[in-house]
Design a protein that fits this description.
Order of helices and strands: HHHHHHH
Number of helices: 7
Protein name: Cyclic nucleotide-binding protein
Organism: Rhizobium oryziradicis
Structural class: mainly alpha
Number of strands: 0
Keywords: Coiled coil, Membrane, Transmembrane, Transmembrane helix
Largest sheet: none
InterPro entries: DUF1003
């Protein structure tokens, strides 16, 4: 890539760390564009983090999704309680007790006789209040999950890019080692031939 920009370079040419980092970034960016087409904002953020050697890991702070107000905490508590076995058992117990009191007639006159109209009204009110609260909590949880999945994507992309760079470095080292071994082998052959020529 450097030779494409600068032309042929001598073997003893050196490059500073900053320019090497810029070249690596351009190379990785080109690889991603070839592989995916257009780069997304997340891809660019990972490239910036990678070139500036900044950690890509970000924790998903609930405060980022929505401030922790009393209403938010109450909605989360209601949603957590409404989706638990404790709520189901407690609610079933209240229904059984309500019906038993009105069917058996523990009082002189039942306060909600058989078709249980008042019970239906109470159940409708509970459902009408509980449903939007649970939906608000789920919406916040969905936003947190989206942020976590974006974070996971960025971490995985960075890991993939770093692994590619490591592979390139290892391949480069192997090529240099093979070249050195070939030179050493040639020197040994020359020495053996010169020794054989002396005999």
């Amino acid at each position: 890539m450097l030779e494409e920009q600068e032309g042929a370079l001598p073997d003893h040419a050196m490059i500073c760390e900053g320019d090497l980092s810029k070249l690596r970034r351009k190379h990785v960016e080109q690889l991603l564009q070839d592989e995916r087409g257009e780069l997304s904002a997340l891809d660019r953020r990972v490239l910036n983090d990678l070139s500036s050697d900044v950690s890509t890991v970000a924790t998903v702070d609930p405060e980022v999704v929505q401030p922790n107000t009393f209403g938010v905490r109450a909605a989360d508590a209601v949603a957590a309680f409404g989706g638990s076995w404790t709520f189901i058992i407690l609610f079933a117990s209240v229904l059984v007790i309500w019906m038993a009191i009105n069917v058996i007639g523990l009082f002189k006159q039942p306060f909600d006789p058989y078709p249980f109209i008042l019970l239906n009204l109470v159940l409708s009110c509970v459902a009408a209040m509980q449903a939007p609260i649970i939906m608000m909590s789920q919406k916040r949880q969905e936003e947190k999950d989206r942020l976590r999945s974006e974070n996971d994507y960025m971490i995985n992309l960075r890991a993939e890019l770093e692994i590619r760079q490591l592979h390139e470095k290892i391949d480069h080292q192997m090529a240099q080692q093979w070249q050195r071994l070939a030179e050493l082998q040639q020197i040994q052959i020359d020495l053996l031939e010169s020794e054989a020529g002396k005999k």
